[in-house]
Design goal:
Helicase, Ruva Protein, domain 3, single chain, five-stranded parallel sheet, alpha/beta, 3 domains, Rossmann fold
C-alpha cells in the first residue's frame, strides 16, 4: 500500500483529502505544519507528499526544499489557494512533481496522485531491474551445486524466514541475498545492504538503529538507521561475524521483537523487515572462541545457504567466462579457444567468481584477439598485465602447451599448477609472503602446495 503524507494547516482539507485517498486504497498520514511533516518523514516510510504552500512556522517552499534535499525518492505535489504562474514555476524548478490550485478538484487531485505514484513505481522498477542485472549471471551454473543453490533460493524466497548465507569471498553471497529479495513478496520494498566489516565498531549501532541529534559528538542531526530504512523490505547484514558482541546483542533483540530505539532516544520504533545475513567465517568456530553469540546464530540460521567456491564447481568456469566475455565484447563476437578454456578451468581462482569476472574484463581490454588463445590467457595469468603485483616477463607457454595437451586433463591441471607456482616463486626469489600475495592465496595454502609438489628453493 502506497503511503501519502498530507501537510496542510486547514483541518477540513486534511480530513477531506484523507477520506478521498483512503477510498482509493492509499495509506494517509497527516501533519498540520512543516516541522511536524518533516518529523513524520524521519519516522515513517512515505512515497508522496501533498504540500500546502501557506503554512505556519515554516513556509511550504522551504519544506519542499528540505524534502528534496533529504528524501530524493519522495515526490511532492504542491497545493495553493493563492496560485500564480511564478509560484508554480518556482515549485517545479525546486523539484515538485505537480502544482494544484485550491479549491481542490477531486478528479484533478486523484489524477495527480496516480501520476506521481506511477512515477514512484517506475523508478522503483528501474532500480529493481538494475539491481537484478548487476552480475546476476554470477549465480549461473550448470553444476549440481549451483542447481541446489538456485532451488534453495527459490524455496526460501517464498517465506519471511531468516537466511544465513556462508561461503568464501567472491562467491556471490550478496547476489544470492538480492535474488531472494527479488523473488519474495517484499520485492517492491527496499533492499538495504550493510557491510558490518566496513563500519567502525563505535558507529555500527548508529548505522543499524539510527541516532538522535546530539546523541554523540558527531550527531549533528537525527538519522534513520538501516533497520528503519529497510521497513517492509529486506535487510542484508554482510560479514555478520565482524560485528561486536554488544552490537550483536542489540541486533538479536531487534530481530526477536522487530523493535528498536535510536541512539539517544527512549522511543521504541517498529520495523517490518526480513533479515538475511552472510559471512565468510565459520560461525561455529567463532562461537567456540567467544566471538559470536550462539543465540544470535540460531536466530539467523533458520535457512542455511552455502555458496560454493569456484574450485568446487569447475564445470561452471567455461559458462561464466563466456558470459563475462560477452558483456565486455562491445558488440564484437569474441570466443575462447578450447586450450585457453582448459587453462582457465585449471586455475585455482582464490577470489572466486569476482576474480574470474575481473580477469575476463581485464583481458577483454588488453587483448584484441577475436578468439582468446591459450598463449594470451596463460600470459596474463602468469604475469603481463595480470595485476598480481609482479613484473612481466616473456611468456613461454607456446612451446610448453604441446606437452600439456599430451596429458589427461587432471594431469595437465596439476602440471600447469606446478609450473605456475615455480614461475611466481622464482619471480619473488622464493619469498613465501610475497609469492602468496602475488597469487592471491594465504601463505599457509602456498606452503601446502609447495609440499604437495615437492618444490624446493632454487629449483
Amino acid at each position: 500500500m502506497s503511503s501519502i503524507l498530507v501537510i496542510d494547516d486547514e483541518p477540513g482539507i486534511r480530513s477531506t483529502v484523507k477520506d478521498i485517498l483512503e477510498d482509493e486504497g492509499y495509506q494517509v498520514l497527516l501533519a498540520e505544519d512543516g516541522p511536524i511533516g518533516l518529523d513524520i518523514l524521519q519516522r515513517e516510510s512515505v512515497d508522496l507528499v501533498l504540500l500546502d504552500v501557506w503554512l505556519p512556522r515554516m513556509g511550504g517552499i522551504d519544506v519542499l526544499k528540505a524534502i528534496k534535499s533529504s528524501y530524493v525518492g519522495i515526490e511532492v505535489i504542491v497545493v495553493s489557494g493563492h496560485a500564480s504562474i511564478d509560484l508554480a514555476v518556482s515549485a517545479v524548478k525546486l523539484g515538485a512533481f505537480d502544482f494544484i490550485e485550491k479549491p481542490l478538484s477531486i478528479d484533478r487531485l486523484s489524477t495527480a496522485v496516480r501520476n506521481a505514484q506511477s512515477l514512484v513505481k517506475l523508478r522503483a522498477e528501474n532500480a529493481r531491474l538494475k539491481r537484478t542485472a548487476v552480475e546476476v549471471d554470477d549465480i549461473l551454473g550448470v553444476s549440481p551445486l549451483m542447481h541446489e543453490v538456485r532451488t534453495l533460493i527459490e524455496q526460501s524466497a517464498k517465506s519471511d524466514a531468516r537466511v544465513l548465507i556462508t561461503g568464501d569471498n567472491g562467491t556471490g553471497k550478496e547476489l544470492a541475498a538480492r535474488r531472494i529479495h527479488e523473488l519474495s513478496e517484499r520485492s517492491e520494498g527496499p533492499f538495504i545492504a550493510v557491510n558490518c566489516a566496513a563500519i567502525p565498531e563505535t558507529l555500527i549501532e548508529s548505522e543499524l538503529f539510527g541516532h538522535e541529534k546530539g546523541s554523540f559528538t558527531d550527531a549533528v542531526s537525527r538519522r534513520k538507521g538501516k533497520f528503519e530504512l529497510a521497513h517492509r523490505g529486506t535487510l542484508f547484514l554482510d560479514e555478520i561475524a565482524d560485528m561486536s558482541l554488544s552490537a550483536q546483542a542489540k541486533v538479536l533483540r531487534a530481530i526477536q521483537e522487530l523493535r528498536f530505539e535510536r541512539l539517544g532516544s527512549e522511543e521504541t520504533l517498529e520495523s517490518d523487515v526480513r533479515v538475511i545475513a552472510a559471512t565468510n567465517k565459520d560461525l561455529r568456530e567463532e562461537i567456540a572462541q567467544g566471538r559470536f553469540r550462539e543465540d544470535l546464530y540460531f536466530r539467523l540460521n533458520v535457512i542455511p545457504l552455502r555458496m560454493p567456491s569456484l574450485r568446487e564447481r569447475r564445470e561452471d568456469i567455461a559458462l561464466l567466462a563466456r558470459v563475462f566475455l560477452d558483456k565486455h565484447a562491445n558488440g564484437a563476437a569474441r570466443s575462447i579457444e578450447a586450450e585457453a578454456m582448459a587453462i582457465l578451468s585449471a586455475h585455482e581462482w582464490p577470489g572466486n567468481v569476482r576474480e574470474l569476472k575481473n580477469f575476463i574484463e581485464r583481458i577483454s581490454v588488453m587483448s584484441d584477439e577475436s578468439s582468446l588463445s591459450a598463449t594470451t590467457i596463460a600470459h596474463f595469468l602468469n604475469g603481463m598485465g595480470g595485476g598480481y603485483g609482479y613484473a612481466a616477463e616473456p611468456a613461454h607457454e607456446p612451446c610448453e602447451l604441446g606437452e600439456l595437451l599430451a596429458l589427461r586433463l587432471s594431469e595437465a591441471r596439476e602440471e600447469f599448477e606446478r609450473r605456475y607456482l615455480l614461475h611466481i616463486l622464482r619471480k619473488m626469489q622464493y619469498n613465501i609472503a610475497k609469492a602468496a600475495e602475488a597469487m592471491g592465496v594465504y601463505p599457509s595454502n602456498l606452503h601446502a602446495k609447495i609440499k604437495k609438489f615437492g618444490i624446493e628453493a632454487g629449483e
